[in-house]
Amino acid sequence: MNVGIIELLTIFVLAGFVGIEVVSKVPSILHTPLMSGSNAIHGIILVGTMAIMGQAHGTVQVTLGFLAVLLATLNIVGGFVVTDRMLEMFKAKPSEKAAKSSDKDADGSAS
Amino acid sequence: MTLFTWIDLVYLLAAIGFILALKGLSSPKFARQGNLLGAAAATAAIAITFAVPSVRSAGSRLILMVVAMVIGAAIAVPAARRVKMTAMPQMVAIFNGVGGGAAALVSLTSFLILTSHDAFVGKPAVYRIVEVILGVLIGCVSFSGSAIAFIKLQELITGRPITYPGQQVINAIVGLAILGVAVATVLTASTVLLVVMLVLALGLGVIFVLPIGGADVPVLISLLNSFTGLAVAASGFALDNNLLIIAGTLVGASGILLTRMMSKAMGRSLANVLFSAFGSVVTATGGAAGADARPVKSGTPEDIGVLLAYARKVVIIPGYGLAVAQAQHTARELADLLMERGVEVFYAIHPVAGRMPGHMNVLLAEANVPYDELKEMDEANPEMTTADVALVIGANDTVNPAADDTPGSPIYGMPIIHADQAQNVVFLKRSMRPGFAGIDNELLFNPKTTLLFGDAKDTLTKLVAAVKSA
Lengths: 111, 470
What we know:
Helix content of chain A: 55-70%
Radius of gyration of chain B: 26 Å
Distance between the termini of chain A: 58 Å
Distance between the termini of chain B: 75 Å
Largest sheet of chain B: 6 strands, parallel
Number of strands of chain A: 0
Order of helices and strands of chain B: HHHHHHHHHHHHHEHHEHEHEHEEH
Radius of gyration of chain A: 20 Å
Largest interface: A-B, 90 and 124 residues
Strand content of chain A: under 5%
Number of helices of chain A: 4
Order of helices and strands of chain A: HHHH
Largest sheet of chain A: none
Shape of chain B: elongated
Number of strands of chain B: 6
Oligomer: heterodimer
Strand content of chain B: 5-15%
C-alpha cells in the first residue's frame, strides 16, 4: 500500500509542475476564461462522486452521494458551458466587415 | 486488456485533454477548441465510469445518480447560458463553490464507506485519514468561502471589508481548533470528530472571506478556485483515482500562479490582500477628503467630440463603470466611428479592470470588439506619451497616479495605466465619487483633464453624435 501512495504523490507533484508551466503562458486578456475553464476542469470530481455512489450503503451515504453528484454536475456542466459562451465571443478583427452584421445570440444576455 | 486497464487508459486520455484545454488558452485563436476538447475529455471520462462494475451494478443508486445528473444539468445549462457577462464573477464563484462542496462530500463519504464496510476492523491507515481530512477541510473552506464571495459580489451584503473587534484572534482560535480536531481525528478515526471539523471548516471559509474587500475579490476567487482544485486532488488520493489527482492538481497549481499574478498586478503581496482588510487602511490615510471642493474642469459632449474627432491617437481605458452602464456596445460604436475617420484607436486594459482577472476583455469581446484592439497594460503604457487623448470610461483606481507618487496611499506601488502621460485626459464619470479603493484621484484635478459627468451609456451616445457632426 505504501508504494501506492508514493505513486500518487509522484503524479501529484508532476501535475503541479505541468499546471504552472501551462498556465504561465496564458495572456491576461484570457484570465477570466482561464478561471472559468479551470473551474470546469475540477468539475471532474463528478467521476469521484459516481464512484462513491457505486459503493454507498444506507440512507446517509446514499444521500451524501446524491448531493455530491448533483453539486459536481452543476460545476462541470455549468463551467464548460459558460466558458464556451465566453470564448465564442473572442474574435479577431474580421477581414470582411460584413461578417459583423450576422452576429447572433451573444446579445441575448444584455436585454 | 481488462476493463480496468481500459478505464485507466480513458482517464489518462482525459487528463491529456485537460492539459491541452489549459494550453489552448495561450491564444484566443485556439482557446475555444481547447475548451471543447476539455469538455469532450470530461464526457469520455464520465461515460467510461458508468462501466465500473460497482457503478454499473448499483441498481437504484445508479438511477439516483442519473437523476442527480439530469437535475444538475437542467439547472446549470440555463444558468450558464443566461448569466450576464457583468455577473460572471458571481457565476464562477458559485460553480467553484459547488465543486468544493462535492469534493468535501466525496472525501467524507469515502471515509464513511471505508469505516462501515463489513470486512473492516480496526482503524484506517493514517495517510487515508489525512487524505480525507484534507479533502473535507479544503473543500468546505472553498464551499463556504465561495458562497460569501457570491453574496458580496451580488451585493446582497456590502462589498466593503467586514471587520469586527478581535477578528484576528477569532480566526486564530478557529484555525487552531481545526488543527486540534484534525489531529484528534487522525488518532481516533472518529466520524463524529470528522463532522465537527467539517463544521469548523465551513465557519473558517466564512470568516476568512468576510474581511476581504470588493476590490480584492478577483484575487480571492482565483484563490478559492485553486482550493477546490486541491480538494479534488485530495479526493483523488482518497479514491486512488489518478484522473482526479491530475485534474485537481492542474487547477490547484494554475490557480495559485494566477492568484500571485493578480496580487502582483495590484502591487501587493498575497498575504497583504488576504489579511490586511483594505478598507481600514483607507480610512487611516483618507485625509484628502477636503480636496473634493477643488475645481475640476468639466466639458460638453460637443467639445470632447471635436477633441476626439481631430485626434491622431486615442486610447480608451475602460473600467467597471463601463460595464455597469452596459455601455460596451456604445463604446465600440464610438471607437469604430473614430477609426473610420482615420484616428488610431486601441483599448488599454488593466489586468484587474472589472471584477475578476481579465473580466474587461470578456465584456468588450461581448460587444464584438476584436481582441487585437485590446492591449495589455505593459503593451499600452509605452504608447501613452504619443496619445492625444486618453478616454477613461468608468475607471478610476487603475489610472490613479497616486500609485506612483504618493507613498502613503493604499494603492501605492500598484502598476497603473499612465493616462496622465497623454496630451489630454477625458474622464467619463458618473460623479466625483472615488473608485473601488475609496481614494481620491489627483488626475481628476489635473489641468489637462476634462470631465464629462453622467451615465456612461448616455454620454457615449452623445459623443457618438458629436463626433458624427464634427
